[in-house]
Amino acid sequence: MLYSQGIPLEQLGITSLDGRSCETDPRKIWKLFSQNYYLFRGTPTGVWLDFELHAVLDLKERPDEYNSDKLYDEICEKLASSEFLPRSLYERFNIEFLATTDSAIDSLNFHDMIIKSGWKGTVVPTFRPDTITDISNLQLWNSSIDTLAMITDRTIDSFSDYLQAIKKQRQFFISRGATATDHGVYQPYTGKLPGDEIEHIFNRARTGLITTEDALKFTAHMLMEYAEMSLTDNLVMQIHPGCFRNHNYPLFEKFGADKGHDIPVSVEYTNNLRALLNTYGNNPELTIILFTLDESTYNRELAPLAGHYPALKLGPAWWFNDSINGMTRFRQMTSETAGFYNTVGFNDDTRALLSIPARHDVSRRLDANYLGTLVAKKIISLEDAVEIAKDLTYSLVKKAYHVK
Amino acid sequence: MLYSQGIPLEQLGITSLDGRSCETDPRKIWKLFSQNYYLFRGTPTGVWLDFELHAVLDLKERPDEYNSDKLYDEICEKLASSEFLPRSLYERFNIEFLATTDSAIDSLNFHDMIIKSGWKGTVVPTFRPDTITDISNLQLWNSSIDTLAMITDRTIDSFSDYLQAIKKQRQFFISRGATATDHGVYQPYTGKLPGDEIEHIFNRARTGLITTEDALKFTAHMLMEYAEMSLTDNLVMQIHPGCFRNHNYPLFEKFGADKGHDIPVSVEYTNNLRALLNTYGNNPELTIILFTLDESTYNRELAPLAGHYPALKLGPAWWFNDSINGMTRFRQMTSETAGFYNTVGFNDDTRALLSIPARHDVSRRLDANYLGTLVAKKIISLEDAVEIAKDLTYSLVKKAYHVK
Amino acid sequence: MLYSQGIPLEQLGITSLDGRSCETDPRKIWKLFSQNYYLFRGTPTGVWLDFELHAVLDLKERPDEYNSDKLYDEICEKLASSEFLPRSLYERFNIEFLATTDSAIDSLNFHDMIIKSGWKGTVVPTFRPDTITDISNLQLWNSSIDTLAMITDRTIDSFSDYLQAIKKQRQFFISRGATATDHGVYQPYTGKLPGDEIEHIFNRARTGLITTEDALKFTAHMLMEYAEMSLTDNLVMQIHPGCFRNHNYPLFEKFGADKGHDIPVSVEYTNNLRALLNTYGNNPELTIILFTLDESTYNRELAPLAGHYPALKLGPAWWFNDSINGMTRFRQMTSETAGFYNTVGFNDDTRALLSIPARHDVSRRLDANYLGTLVAKKIISLEDAVEIAKDLTYSLVKKAYHVK
């Protein structure tokens, strides 16, 4: 938001890759932020920030250019106290289960540290294999495969070796508590290739020579393989398509990963997912959770698909899941055709620990509002609404994500 | 809904094509349904079922696993009584006009039986020529053409013969009261082919050798021919595109027709309908009614088109027409640009006789709610609202469908 | 609306190109309009007309077939009075700044007359270069280039000449007060071509031999050039894509320009604008304002893009900007992700002077309603809402359009 209004990232303390100087004084950065706090009016970020500053950090004022220094001192003092240590917050927020998203070739050493520490909280990894799946980013893919070979202690000379290594690494994640995978794709193409063709593409990718079509086919094939693996190892499969990564290439070049900004694109599910759903979608033992950034698919494609295929469930409105209007539209556009019970309730995907209560609070208010409207219109009874409210916040989430 | 939650169709009394045993005890099936009645909470089906059970069947409780047997007995008793015979319900529901949808090669023998019975109700057929039009399903098309030739007592050796046979069969439908046709297409391609090209495609289709492009061109051409026929015989032309038929192919293979599930796809109207509208759309004597499953086209394409071309009207939100949110959005997204008078009011498309009152009740409440909001905002007067309400439920429907 | 209900344009006083007689008695035309006034119920046109007749013309009744003559006389009397002269209305409406849209090759003689008249009002031109940019309409383009050469007193023999002439003509518009350009394109393709290729296409276009692809590439390249020019001359760049011009070709052929009716199509922004935004979008000195007729892009593409690129702002919901539901959805679907401060407030695009107050009144009520809802939900404070309300109606508009 600040960047969109012409404030350079350097003034926000973000160093460019060429190492040119940027603002390093956090107090000055906080002041710039405070001066521009009005830009967040009516935005989801504004709502969480208000909530965090007020309900989590117990500040009495919204930041502005005048109170900036005072609030800065107050926040520093609080964050330095033991009650603001992550584990204290985990307990204060009444969290039962926290899943991180981890590269498929991550060593999970932080997870090991948590386990070894003897702490009672539950923090599990999620298996995200994008870099070992997407051959269109060939250099990254090849180096990831090399790492995969190393950490699984296997030779990867064929597509079959590759699948075996992935299966082994999934077992490693499962041993650390993982219950789900997460697949980011541009379009959700799915379809199985003949054995020799997939082998052929794999080999060409390893030697650095692929076509655009190879990449599409490979991803489409791999989504089938991942569903097949989930049948065996029981990991819940999440698919979130439709994002143009690093849309702002000059910014990506200057500042690197996660600074290139992602912009949604139109997505097609009905045709693209058919191969996957025809092969695996009729199996009620499997759980495939779909997300979208393209609202026009909510009632046209996603709700009808989830309202039919036993394996399919709809994830909360990803990206818009923090938006009050977006989450409201999600309910309005999917609940009638998919039913509440083909959705998975709310899971936030924040990177900001302090924002967790705000996100769940917003989500619960909106679902309660939607349910209350149904009660007021006599579409459901108050007793129904109370049950559904609990299902959406708790029961459906635990069931969908295999949380014990 | 039950299938989407993992209940096999066999347990719901649906026999697979291979004849393997399925549940045959209706009381057990009703019990399974009652146990899972909660799944329909907040869905259109839930709303109709509540209405049917309460207002039509006069039951005092919602089904659950405990009252299942008691309700089963009550329903059986009622359905066996003379006041629940279809004709009694037709009168009780105060129906004036009921149209069935019939294959273009149907003998209409049930319609003849109704006419011969001397009953005073009005039940008319609707001419649905999909199987005699869609050459992409070549085997079905060829056998349908053979049937068409037989029932019209004509030889069909050329495209011209084929058109003549269709015209004759339309006259047969008209003689039994038909006022409309109904065309289901994947995309609404329209466009006239030169005489030799359409003849050529027709002949190749009869001999079993066509391309995908042939099929698209043929359907596009036939929509032009059907509009031309409507100019002469005055049948109202309905077009509903955008459905992927039998999306779940394994289920279709196992259980047969109507079990493969249909899923909507994105549809394009502006370019695709241009040939049809440029040739026939300026004629106010013709009525073409468009339906959609793709809400994103409501205000982008459909309302602007219907707000301009004299021949064009918008049908109620098909598929979503039973959905409370969907019907509300239809009004919100089309009424301003198309105006109320370029829509055709409400016609339900139910296969369930008992659900007719529920559907019209829901539709009327929602339109009344939309109109009431306009009155409250002083956009229209109360007098206007009362007139529009009658137009939407009655006058516009009769006018659009040529009901006398 | 009247045409869509079967009333021929000739009866509304519109002469066809072949000069066949049409109704010429304005009183009769007004009567026909009055008889059909009910068709506008619940439409934006109905809302403005009600407002104009009541608040601007001070009539006490809505037109109908009975009061038609009486109202006709009243309106004639008022329009003939000095207080209904355009400049009187300009003052009465409290207008500060009025921009017309003008062909890039317009002589701006009416603007000169206004300036020379010594009148104190501000009426400035806007530079709309569609006819000198769109080579797909080759005949019109070539004659426009000839005119461009003449009025800029330059020879245009190369692409470079062409750019120079455009720059000169932009200066001419700026000298008459212009602060913005306006670019209508079918799809917002953008991308720079190598110098020899663009020169090649330009030369082929001048000699009358281009392909469809040439036209797409040329427009894509020219949007880049126009952004480049804006960097220098500071004109705000407006882009409104997604309109199928003259959809009703028979009507266009019969009645000519502006009678062929335009219908929106689906638009893609994320991929198509990337070249433009990667090259110019990071520059906060530049202002590019995007419009859309495709609501499905509001929250999928437009709000995320405007919420990131410093140069990008969202224009009000063009076309739907007069629609109560459409304007409401615009706020609901863009404000959270783009923020209020990446939109430009409200500018109406009417051709009807009398409708200006109605449009701004509607827009302000809707924004106030949206803001009031945020206050009621405690998402923003009342003080915030009051500030934002002023920004949306006044400050943001002046800032975005460089109005002094």
Secondary structure layout plus pairing:
Three copies of one chain form a homotrimer.
Chain A (H helix, E strand, L loop, with lengths): L25 H10 L8 H13 L11 H12 L6 H7 L5 E2 L2 E2 L5 H9 L5 E2 L2 E2 L1 H4 L4 H15 L6 H17 L4 E6 L9 H12 L5 H22 L2 E6 L1 E2 L4 H7 L7 E2 L9 H7 L7 E3 L6 H10 L5 E3 L9 H15 L17 H21 L5 H19 L4
Parallel strand pairs in A: 1-3, 2-4, 5-6, 6-9, 9-10
Antiparallel strand pairs in A: 7-8
For the structure shown, list the relevant keywords.
homotrimer; 404 residues; alpha/beta; uronate isomerase, domain 2, chain A; TIM Barrel; 2 domains; 4-stranded parallel β-sheet; two-stranded parallel ribbon; 10 strands; 50% helix
Order of helices and strands of chain A: HHHHEEHEEHHHEHHEEHEHEHEHHH
**Sheet with most strands of chain A:** 4 strands, parallel
> Biggest interface and which pair forms it?
A-B, 38 and 34 residues
The count of β-strands of chain A is: 10
- In DSSP terms, counting alpha (H) and pi (I) runs of 4 or more, how many helices of chain A? 16
CATH class category name of the largest domain in chain A: Alpha Beta
Determine the structural class of chain A based on helices, strands and strand pairing: alpha/beta
> What CATH architecture label of the largest domain in chain A applies?
Alpha-Beta Barrel
